[in-house]
Design goal:
455 residues; alpha/beta; FAD/NAD(P)-binding domain; D-Amino Acid Oxidase, Chain A, domain 2; 8-stranded mixed β-sheet; 16 strands; 26% strand
Length: 455
């Protein structure tokens, strides 16, 4: 069986379903496929936290009712000893992912988008240097050929289409293990009432979560999403083993009645893919590495990538040009804004991954970064305020006991600024991509040498 559409979206997680919603009602013939059924949409295991601003920036309706497990007013970030913490304020949600996903998909369907669940994409169809469709397997094992002018890969970290595209296409960009975290989490009903359920907790401790962090996200007064992520490619233990051997010894973790869900996943933690588009192709979400490199949050970034992809697709159909050049706005819209922040935070992420517990403890104890500046850094990707003007006497006095830390912070701030600047100058067309990629790779290589990063 062969089906033809204007746009085919493969994968209906946060990225794919958001794009389906944003393209619905536009007059385009759009279809979305996913290998799961209704009860598993948006099924990737994660902390389930998302900032409110992501909905405001993209026009995706905010979650309501049973879609919200907990309103969030901020984050508590703890030092390794847990004696010191930052209270970073910012509104958001802990969501019921499945309920949010079903609502967004149904809204798209009500405006004309076709949805085919329990349908697995097998391979891309390439003709004359263009991606013209996808071969898939339907619910009954039947072969389905989907043809479309634009094919969108929103399949998450499996990258089901991206890595099967021709090797010479620049979108065929694999994820290095060291640029990902391996995560495991459990949702537990606790035996006690959680204090301040409107604040999610992040614990930075290299002994428990090397190259990552562990989290405790309340879902109301008596349940919590608890998990950890560790950097991949470094030989660290499986996070599920760490969970059982270390976290389950903690009083606030082991005191539970039952486990609702236990699962793990791989999370990209790096700058975005060098290009989200090529001929008749767009990649968004985890498969294009549109994720916050520091905390691994991907839902909001996926929605924003979908927002820019929707604009690019509409422009492409107005012009009748579905080449890399015709879809290029998806790159410009994302890379020069949220992508620039993401690249900057990737620099910061690498620094955090080589910090010792002593340095982390020292930084939080001495308030090297103010709480409001930590929020500003997370939102804009700028190492601001105290860290942005390290020549201030107050900061020098704070860091007298750690001159090497002061020098590394100077280096980090410099390269964060340079990375952000480079992404804000993302090329106007595919013709400038190779030169720009070389500049990016040179910047990151030099930075890693200066900080002694060998991976």
């Amino acid at each position: 069986m062969e089906l033809k559409y204007d746009v085919l979206i493969v994968g209906l997680g946060p990225a794919g379903s958001s794009l389906a919603y944003l393209l619905s009602g536009t007059g385009l013939n759009v279809a979305g496929i996913d290998m799961v059924d209704w009860d598993k949409v948006w099924g990737k295991p994660c902390g389930d936290a998302i900032g409110e601003h992501h909905f405001e920036e993209t026009g995706i309706p905010k979650p309501t009712g049973k879609e919200v497990k907990q309103r969030v007013n901020g984050i508590l970030v703890y030092s390794p000893s847990e004696k010191y913490y930052y209270r970073v304020r910012g509104p958001g949600y802990i969501i019921n992912r499945n309920e949010v996903g079903k609502r967004i998909i149904r809204d798209a369907m009500n405006k004309g988008v076709e949805v085919h669940l329990k349908t697995r994409a097998r391979k891309p169809i390439i003709e004359n240097g263009k991606l013209v469709g996808v071969e898939a397997v339907g619910p009954n094992g039947d072969k389905i050929v989907y043809k479309a002018k634009v094919v969108v890969d929103a399949t998450g970290n499996t990258m089901s289409l991206r890595l099967k595209l021709p090797k010479e296409w620049p979108v065929n960009e694999p994820l290095k293990p060291v640029d990902a975290n391996i995560a495991y989490r459990e949702i537990r009903e606790m035996e006690y009432e959680i204090e301040e359920p409107d604040y999610i907790r992040i614990y930075v401790n290299q002994d428990i979560a090397p190259g990552g962090y562990w989290w405790f996200f309340p879902e109301g007064r008596t349940s919590a999403n608890i998990g950890l992520g560790v950097q991949g490619g470094r030989g660290y233990p499986n996070p599920m083993i760490i969970f059982k051997e270390k976290l389950d010894k903690r009083d606030d973790v082991r005191r539970y009645k039952k486990v609702y869900d236990a699962s793990g996943s791989i999370v990209p933690t790096r700058r975005p893919a060098n290009t989200l588009v090529w001929n008749n192709f767009i990649g968004i979400g985890d498969n294009a590495f549109t994720v916050n490199p520091v905390h691994g949050g991907g839902m909001g970034y996926a929605m924003y990538a979908a927002f820019n992809a929707s604009k690019a697709i509409k422009e492409a159909f107005e012009r009748g040009d579905f080449s890399a050049k015709g879809l290029w706005y998806a790159n410009i819209g994302y890379m020069r804004t949220l992508g620039a922040k993401q690249a900057s935070l990737d620099i910061f992420r690498m620094f955090l991954q080589i910090m010792s517990n002593d340095d982390i403890e020292f930084g939080l104890k001495n308030r090297i970064m103010r709480e409001e500046d930590m929020y500003e850094t997370s939102v804009t990707g700028d190492l601001k305020a105290d860290l942005g003007i390290l020549d201030k006497l107050s900061v020098v006095l704070k860091t007298l006991g750690r001159p090497s830390l002061l020098m590394r912070l100077r280096t980090v701030g410099k390269y964060m600024s340079q990375a952000k600047s480079l992404y804000k100058k993302y090329p106007e067309s595919p013709d400038g991509l190779d030169k720009w990629v070389a500049e990016v790779e040179s910047l990151y290589s030099t930075y890693k040498k200066e900080l002694g990063i060998t991976w």
